[in-house]
Specification:
This protein is mainly alpha-helical. The chain has helices at residues 3-21, 47-63, 65-71, 88-125, 134-160; strands at 29-33, 39-43, 77-78, 81-82.
């Protein structure tokens, strides 16, 4: 399954989950939790639609990074360098890696929001339910690890042929 398909599947899952759970949800649902899983914020059930909107919009922005890089390479930062610091030849070789990275990041981002939506619905349906914080920690670790991995690969690819333009 491609990362785009994963993003679409996760958004569809959240949409179906919200749509099927909405009629049974109370007027006030938990929307914010501390690290121990205790509820520290409340909202209405329609808050779940905003969560889905953030999931979809955030994923679209992340998936747009390669397109932004092609049109405005000075806006894409890759660790210590911007995409515009690389020669046109290097950028062409880097773009597939940037596309892979943004795809995985969008899928991770969608997974986090799908998890949060599911946990909010579960906590609203079963009072006293506490979400586990480990998936959020795993998401953060995976995102940082993936970003470091791809930024290093991109910089190694550029350095392998000395395709980095000297800074002026």
């Amino acid at each position: 399954m491609t990362s785009r398909a994963a993003v679409i599947a996760l958004a569809a899952y959240v949409f179906i989950s919200i749509r099927s759970a909405l009629p049974q949800l109370p007027e006030r649902i938990p929307t914010k939790f501390d690290w121990d899983g205790r509820v520290i914020g409340w909202g209405g059930p329609n808050t779940l639609w905003m969560l889905l909107a953030f999931q979809v919009l955030g994923s679209l922005v992340i998936l747009a990074i390669p397109a932004i890089g092609r049109r405005a390479p000075q806006l894409v930062n890759l660790g210590f360098h911007r995409l515009s610091d690389y020669s046109a030849e290097a950028r062409e070789r880097i773009m597939p890696l940037l596309g892979e990275m943004s795809g995985y990041l969008a899928a991770f981002y969608s997974f986090l929001f799908a998890f949060l939506s599911r946990e909010i619905i579960r906590a609203a349906q079963v009072p006293g339910t506490h979400p586990s914080p480990w998936p959020v920690g795993a998401f953060v670790a995976a995102t940082v690890g993936l970003t470091i991995y791809y930024v290093r690969r991109i910089n190694q690819e550029a350095r392998s042929d000395s395709l980095l333009r000297p800074r002026q």
